[in-house]
Amino acid sequence: MNKExxxxxxxxxxxxxxxxxxxxxxxxxxxAMARYKRLRGCDVMFLTGTDxxxxxxxxxxxxxxxxxxxxxxxxxxxxxxxxxxWKLMNISxxxxxxxxxxxxxxxxxxxxxxxxxxxxxxxxxxxxxxxxPCESFWTESQLVDGKCPDCGREVIDAEEEAYFxxxxxxxxxxxxxxxxxxxxxxxSRVNEMVNNFIKPGLEDLCVSRTSxxxxxxxxxxxxxxxxxxxxxxxxxxxxxxxxxxxxxDYEKYWxxxxxxxxxxxxxxxxxxWPAMLxxxxxxxxxxxYGHGWLNFGGEKMSKSRGNVVDPYILAEMFGVDALRxxxxxxxxxxxxxxxxxxxxxxxxxTDLANDLGNLVSRTTAMAEKYFGGDLPxxxxxxxxxxxxxxxxxxxxxxxERQMExxxxxxxLAEAWRxxxxxxxxxxxxxxxxxxxxEAQKPRLLAVMKNLCEAxxxxxxxxxxxxxxxxxxxxxxxGVPADGRVWDAVGYDLETGGWWKTATGDPLFxxxxxxxxxxxxxxxxxxxxxxxxxxxxxxxxxxxxxxxDTFCKSDFRAVKVKDxxxxxxxxxLLRFTLDDGTGVxxxxxxxxxxxxxxxxxxxxxxxxxVNLPPRKMMGLESNGMLISAVHTEKGEEKLNLLMVDxxxxxxxxxx
Length: 654
Ligand code: ME8
Hints:
Oligomer: single chain
Bound molecules: ligand ME8
């Protein structure tokens, strides 16, 4: 029998070494859905990848002194890069596309040409705000205070030759698609699209540029590169082999069952993408689902706002499954959610440690104690067990409905309804009381087996979201492979034979909130420090000093006769210096943080000696010692300038 196909995608990510938990949100959701569909027996294609062209990348590469390709290679494939993060988050993608992949580049050129040849791409003039020094076009809304957002300089009105896509031609068909079908969900996003973009009139879209080169060249018009969205959106079909020979599953998987995308790119996916496909004469994806943002402190988590949450730190402290669960259980997929560490810890303690973890620990501990972990066939069923089965079957059916509607939070709530009920079932049936009476042994056996069965069903339900946890649970209960699949999700009252339980460490140890929050702060500070440059030196002064003024500064070699801390000051040291005049010179210097006084006695230093005297802490300072300063990993460092002791005191430096 042919398996049902399911093709699901994430957006392709801009290469960044600062992907945060907000980015991971979409990919984790997509992964959970892909795993759920695989569990249901579907033939799944889960595509993700990276969107690697554009002026920003070109600029960043220049800054880093590497080619754009080297720059993106490092971020996509390198340590803590995009692929690394997906590995950390246990993302089971089937295919990863990079828009710099040769097959994609060729396919985009063919796509562009086809749309050009059918008259949907035409040459026109792009008008915008242009920053000459940066050689960049900006739109009015990108400007900051009317100036270039990159360098802050004035911009001018300018034009460049560019190709345009006849988006306006498809306005009516796109409107019908949005308003009269279930193409775009949640429904609230439809009104947003129609009111904000379609009703005011769809303008044709600029799809090529000549002002930068890091893009896919328009092969029939050198000098033009394809401007990002045609390049980016087409990934969903080129990755299947559309207009290229790298892959051959376009016929098999297209149209996509669903594109999961963040709400800010819904516009591109629900208006431009279908219009492009209409132009190409290709089928449209079945659905676009626009999820909400993970906010932090009330604002969208983003690098530029500096409020990103590092998934590596959280995964290390709490485990990847807990993190995946938290994101999908706490925030309804279509809405925004506010991420806080407190909420994360609270959720782990309540849902995972108390409810799920305890259920598994209590059950396996009792199975061990009363039956040595071996639960044979037989046992005495009662009405309580039948009730548990009814609830389990109902929860499973609801779970299925919710998952099919991409409502992860509601689906998980159904799994937790069963978990909570099972915990209550323990208290109601009190196995420890039954265990005291040999005559109750058959009842005790049935209770333990029902608990195992409730846990087994729960584990199947949570597997798409927490694959490692589900696996650990199956192992502890000794569930064979055929008891882990969707076909076995129905609660079986008569389960016999397969329980061979084992005890182990708690699946989710309880977290001490205050301690964990402090550790998180510390880990964040350490990570921030590690990200600082190894060495920073002050930028050079552009202001020139004229030679005569410079020559007026009198620098001399001085020898330290004595050095003492200054009372009540943790900064100042008091130096008694031989400056070659025969009269001791006193200089106060704020360097106590870096030197112990005794280690400086006898050293030959450099001082400027013709500064006017200055009083500090009631003491007079006659000059200033010269030192070199720089910053290492964010920390200021200072080194006194020490010179050869062979230089006599008073020698003039020039
Ligand atoms: O938009 N909460 O790439 P991208 C939830 N290359 N989702 C978030 C988020 C947050 N705080 N921050 C980012 C692009 N995302 C384009 C896509 S597709 C043909 C081209 C989501 O790296 C964001 O909404 O900026 C988007 O869905 C995804 O991360 C990639 O964002």
